[in-house]
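Posting for a labmate who doesn't have an account.
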Amino acid sequence: MSENQTHNTGVLQAFSPVSNKLNWLLIAVPITIYYSLFTHDPAMSFIFSMIAIMPLAFLMGHATEEIALRTSESLGGLLNATFGNAVEFIIAVLAIYTAATHIDQAETMITLVQASLIGSIIGNILLVLGLSLLWGGYKHQTQTFNQDALSSNGSLLLLAVLALIIPTAFHHGGGAGDNIINLSRWASVVLLTMYGLSLLFQLKTHSHLFASTGPSDGHDDPTMTNKGAWILLILATILVGWMAEILVHSVDEAATSWGLPAIFIGVILLPFFGNAAEHFTAVLVAGKNKMDLSLAIAIGSSVQIAVFVAPLMVVFAWIMGVNLGLEFGILETAATFMSVLVVNFILGDGKTNWLEGSMLLACYTILALSFYMS
């Protein structure tokens, strides 16, 4: 078999429903295109684009893992974390671009960006982590993890929450709108600087603190060629971008058709579908007693959203002339603050069990109800 045939076979196998049952949901891609281009039904376009993003996000993750197997462990972890949040990144970029080019949709798009970012943070640390602790605790009575790594990520999350609380407090204290936007922009620059310093800390100067303490299955061998993995990553990313573009432009009419608050769609629905494959992985490895990896997926993704993606989107909006700030509203800010506080408190002893997972899921359910009724 020629090299090109090997590349093509690897890519086609990745898309095959036989290799992964989640790939059956790829049927939602042509259905989304049909409703978007031919029947012009925003409500149906929105729901099927959300469904289509699930298997595409999984394929992006699979391709990234294949590429990461050929790099160092630290760089591989960074690649996985970065592309794991690609869906939120793409949706936010498209929404900001829409806000810049369609002034009449600016308010809706800004709300969508802020809600999806907040939803990703609390979804990862409450829903994903809660399910992981519940399933891991069911399989193993007590589980332990690397406390040093958690402490570093927990501190970064608290720093990000500070950057959310101050603009909100400034706003409700009578601060001018322009000052809030300027404060948010410069606070975002500080957060991006801290994210860069945290990468230096984790990957270079103190990498030994982040070594896994749990059981290991050894080094996995790649199942695709490097070129095939990159082809798969590019194809999946293009399709995710297309589905996200349809989703962003149909969210307003879909919310009206279903009678759902736009904030509920942004905080609950989008992160759930966009991170479904990642959620499954975190829960699965928790069941195998690999809590360091499970926590890295759940909390590490939240850290990257809070300290990198969110401030980066504020800076990008600044460049595009869109007034996107870190003042996300009282409910969103309170939800994020309490979520981070609860998680840091529950994981503070370095051990987990199924009851703690149930507590996190209870918190997420209460917050979901509050956003639905807002």
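Reply:
Got it, the structure tokens are right above this. The chain has 14 helices and two strands.
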